[in-house]
Amino acid sequence: MENQQITDALLAQFGADAVFGIGESHGILQVTTTVETIVPMIHFLYAHPTFKFQFLTDLAGIHFPDAKGQELGVIYHLHSLENNVRLWIKAYAPIEAPHFPTITDLYAAANWMEREAFDFYGIIFDGHPNLTRILNMDEMDYHPMRKEYPLEDATRHDKIDELFGR
């Protein structure tokens, strides 16, 4: 099974308006889609008689503060075990409305992965059965992996800059 075959099937099923940003990295097909298309696309790939992307390897949140209207995103890493083919699907949403539909009905493993993306990035997965923090304290009122926070605590004076190459 070739990446072009998957790309052609996705374009035929969803059209160029919903399948864009097509690329390849180290032999892995990468596709970008819309938030509205992500669940139908994943269901299509899961149920396709040839592709059978029935394993969710990973789901990760991302933050690009300079991409206006597309600051928060989710990357879905799918794997067809039968064909030994991997695929990355990306979708983006504005930081003011970081809503993505859940895929926990298709992949049970998405439950914890979506909770992690919510915990660290503030991405809301509509329809998730238990969208609560998973690693951070419930009392936190921010999402620490967003790039709006400094990497270091500027108030600390116990670091020797020479040891950190500064």
Automatic annotation (TrEMBL):
<keyword id="KW-0874">Quinone</keyword>
<keyword id="KW-1003">Cell membrane</keyword>
<dbReference type="InterPro" id="IPR037232">
    <property type="entry name" value="NADH_quin_OxRdtase_su_C/D-like"/>
</dbReference>
<keyword id="KW-0472">Membrane</keyword>
<keyword id="KW-1278">Translocase</keyword>
<keyword id="KW-0813">Transport</keyword>
<dbReference type="InterPro" id="IPR010218">
    <property type="entry name" value="NADH_DH_suC"/>
</dbReference>
<keyword id="KW-0520">NAD</keyword>
<dbReference type="InterPro" id="IPR001268">
    <property type="entry name" value="NADH_UbQ_OxRdtase_30kDa_su"/>
</dbReference>
<protein>
    <recommendedName>
        <fullName>NADH-quinone oxidoreductase subunit C</fullName>
        <ecNumber>7.1.1.-</ecNumber>
    </recommendedName>
</protein>
<comment type="similarity">
    <text>Belongs to the complex I 30 kDa subunit family.</text>
</comment>
<feature type="domain" description="NADH:ubiquinone oxidoreductase 30kDa subunit">
    <location>
        <begin position="32"/>
        <end position="153"/>
    </location>
</feature>
<comment type="subunit">
    <text>NDH-1 is composed of 14 different subunits. Subunits NuoB, C, D, E, F, and G constitute the peripheral sector of the complex.</text>
</comment>
<comment type="function">
    <text>NDH-1 shuttles electrons from NADH, via FMN and iron-sulfur (Fe-S) centers, to quinones in the respiratory chain. The immediate electron acceptor for the enzyme in this species is believed to be a menaquinone. Couples the redox reaction to proton translocation (for every two electrons transferred, four hydrogen ions are translocated across the cytoplasmic membrane), and thus conserves the redox energy in a proton gradient.</text>
</comment>
<dbReference type="Pfam" id="PF00329">
    <property type="entry name" value="Complex1_30kDa"/>
</dbReference>
